[in-house]
Hints:
Helix 2 (18-32) crosses helix 3 and helix 3 packs across helix 4 (91-102). The chain contains four helices and five strands. The two termini are 13 Å apart. The protein is 47% helix and 19% strand. The protein has helices at residues 9-13, 18-32, 68-85, 91-102, and strands at residues 36-38, 42-45, 48-52, 56-59, 62-65. It has a five-stranded antiparallel β-sheet, with helices on one face. By secondary structure, the chain is an alpha+beta fold.
Amino acid sequence: MGQTIDPRDKMRFGEDSTRLVEAGARAAAKELGIRLVVEDMRVEIGDVVAEFDGGRLRIGSLEVSVDEDQWAGFKTLLLSFLANHRRPPTEAEVKELIFAATGREP
């Protein structure tokens, strides 16, 4: 598995590409004809549904404790995955994204 993403890097390097990533994900979803919903506490990419309840991330049968910064990082990674790979992630790939965002395995 990869390295953990530190959301504070956005502040240190003065860049927040979240809007660009979301735009790329929306373009990919439209191209693929799949549903994309991006809300503060929920992201849907086709059949992949991730929810944050203020302390827990739930996606399919996976669940892990996260804080708000980790949730924000995970959301961005999930959208980036769609934008770059032009498909929703598999369960194994979701596990890797969770680890990258939190440093913990689900």
